[in-house]
Amino acid sequence: LLLKLKVEYKQITGQDYKAGCPPPENLPVPDNGPSAEDATEEDEVNPWSVTTTNAKGVDYDKLILRFGSSKIEKELVDRIEKVSGQKPHRFLRRGIFFSHRDMHQVLDAYEKHKSFYLYTGRGPSSEAMHVGHLIPFIFTKWLQDVFDIPLVIQLTDDEKYLWKDLSVEECHRFAVENAKDIIACGFDINKTFIFSDLDYMGSSPQFYRNVVKVQKHVTFNQVKGIFGFTDSDCIGKISFPAIQAAPSFSNSFPHIFGERKDIQCLIPCAIDQDPYFRMTRDVAPRIGYPKPALLHSTFFPALQGAQTKMSASDANSSIFLTDSAKQIKNKINKHAFSGGKDTVEEHRQFGGNAEVDVSFMYLTFFLEDDEQLEKIRQDYTSGALLTGELKKILIETLQPMIATHQERRKQVTEELVKQFMTPRPLNFNF
Ligand SMILES: *[C@@H]1O[C@H](CO)[C@@H](O)[C@H](O)[C@H]1NC(C)=O
Ligand SMILES: *[C@@H]1O[C@H](CO)[C@@H](O)[C@H](O)[C@H]1NC(C)=O
């Protein structure tokens, strides 16, 4: 109950609950961007919280309107296929990456042999990563492979220190632990630089110069509007968005790009991170840099249903990358929200609802075969496939996937992590 009240407190006030600190007098109206008036009342989407009352999940078409981004239409997917010469990743085929900013421009330039680099990241709030955390990394690895381009991965351990009740040392340790899971996704060491903010900020004058440039061009009023900060937030939080903005500019990485400041950046991320990059895109031209382009993904639903995203702080809502085959099976059988009917007879007669069924949603993320997925959807909807059978397919999909991840993570040595996290030149032909 206390946890639930804390979440509610944060939703209403926009800040973490602290014992003995009264809430601010002027409660901020949650504001997620330029046209927040059009927002559906039930969907809350910001970097710290995602909730909706709709069992099918957030209304992503409305979110595109609200955030002012563009839908990834079939035409764009076809174009990515043509330009890369590869079958589009299932996340593109199935609309899991559903929204973008300036992706056509990135492809126009790429066709004219003007390449780009990738930037993604993670907030290391604990040692435990769950399967949902892998989504941006699986997709970014695919982009790196098909376009053959460099990648920077920011671990915002500084952010977690500012937002959570953790020590600086803990946050840094989580960053290094998370880097192992990220490396286990198979990134090319010759094309990938992973950095902890706590390490890199202090060692890179060029990075810090860009942070300061962004800080000078964003007012407190603007970040209040974008992120819902209040007068009682610490000044570290208020200036943090500049640190998440800086990797969007190529000269933040002189060991990779030298003094070049004109290299286009493409950011694959979940759409809740968009506020940071709306701000970045607003600032970029004013400080002489290209605007970063974006590819936005949907959220990975909690086991209990698509009303919230999977959260590492609720063990029952998450399948962790450290879970055993047995734990995966138990969690899915016990907690995965089902769109099935109460009895087998009813289910056979009326069929299940795949649109709200969490096991089916997870299969859209992880089952590679389009035809098999469509057959499962049809059979579940008609009632031919029972909930238990659907869950079994998901269990048998996730168990080997997570076992393989665990095997690969075991191979990641401290030495390898150090190599990935050392500022150094990368191999690429621009
Ligand atoms: C990285 O580059 C080194 C030196 O050029 C090469 O030996 C190695 O095979 C490359 N690694 C990968 C994963 O391509
Ligand atoms: C998680 O699920 C288990 C088994 O159903 C239950 O005993 C436990 O109380 C749940 N924990 C939370 C935090 O809800």
UniProtKB/TrEMBL annotation:
Keywords linked to the UniProt accession: Aminoacyl-tRNA synthetase, ATP-binding, Ligase, Nucleotide-binding, Protein biosynthesis
Assigned EC number: 6.1.1.2
Disordered: annotated span: 17-46
Cited CDD domains: TrpRS_core
One Pfam family in the UniProt entry: tRNA-synt_1b
InterPro entries assigned to the protein according to its UniProt record, in alphabetical order: aa-tRNA-synth_I_CS, aa-tRNA-synth_Ic, Rossmann-like_a/b/a_fold, Trp-tRNA-ligase
Keyword Protein biosynthesis carried by entry: yes
Protein name in the entry: Tryptophan--tRNA ligase, cytoplasmic
Species for this entry: Periophthalmus magnuspinnatus
